[in-house]
């Protein structure tokens, strides 16, 4: 069996240098790092996790809290996070949770039974005991896609991004704009505030009946939300702002089923810019979240917190972009 000393001998470096590469530490020449990684792959070297855990007093396990009905954006995000965590030498445990108190309590119970070095939350938790446990235990944690005031987070400016998305519709002459939004999540509330602020900037009233809140962020929920809006007010709108791309796609499906053309009759804006948004019919106008950077920053932030428990990480508010495609058009 190949050992760390064998790898070090072949590259002409010390075992400690090889160890730094394996553990994702800095201060290793990029060329040397590449050579070590190449040899590790060629020889099939596998670090002895049990021995490494005893020496470093770490489990090299990270928990990721994700919703039990996650959408495409969340699926892409946790794949990126997991890949970067693996590059730092961690293996991941997934904790699926529903948006209800009983499920959150069960998730917390399962989490307490594991020896974790850290936790990443993709799902927004409502139970304050959940956060109290993380803080009281001093367990390194990072929230991603949403913010919590006592835990570092990685996200975009939700309110401003939504404001810009709705302003795009207003600039095209739309005034009757509906919204399909996620229920029970803070970023949904922030995106709703951005929606209302954009309307207010155009002198339009705050009309809560133009927003429908759905239980998940999927295309199926988008279909449900659009049907609900049609039942409420018929075709008294010319545009829809959806809180996620999948909600937007469900919205478009129902509109087309009803013989309403997009964008000729109704314009639609989404949020996230998942990969399929560029291939939908019509191609979706949306707010692009920096998915790759978000995943990388989340994993790096947690790794730094684990390695240095005294380090204080600041929130990372990342830039977003309005991507204009074919699902929006000027009125008339």
Give the tally of β-strands: 12
**Helix and strand succession?**
HHHHEHEHEHEEHEHEHEHEEHEE
Name the overall outline.
Answer: elongated
Total of domains:
3
Give keywords.
elongated, 6-stranded parallel sheet, 434 Repressor (Amino-terminal Domain), alpha/beta, Rossmann fold, 3 domains, 332 residues, 45% helix
Account of the 3D structure:
Keywords: DNA-binding, Repressor, Transcription, Transcription regulation. By secondary structure, the protein is α/β, with parallel strands linked by helices. It folds into 3 domains: 4-47, 434 Repressor (Amino-terminal Domain) (Orthogonal Bundle); 55-156 and 291-318, Rossmann fold (3-Layer(aba) Sandwich), CATH 3.40.50; 158-289, Rossmann fold (3-Layer(aba) Sandwich). It is 45% helix and 17% strand. It has 12 helices and 12 strands. The protein has a 6-stranded parallel sheet, sandwiched between helices. Strands 7-6-8-9-10-12 form a 6-stranded mixed sheet, sandwiched between helices. β6, α9 (186-201) and β7 (211-214) form a beta-alpha-beta unit. The longest helix has 17 residues, at 291-307. The model is unreliable at 49-56 (pLDDT under 50).
State the gist of this model:
It comes from Breznakiella homolactica. The chain folds into three domains: 4-47, 434 Repressor (Amino-terminal Domain) (Orthogonal Bundle); 55-156 and 291-318, 3-Layer(aba) Sandwich (Rossmann fold), CATH 3.40.50; 158-289, Response regulator (Rossmann fold, 3-Layer(aba) Sandwich), CATH 3.40.50.
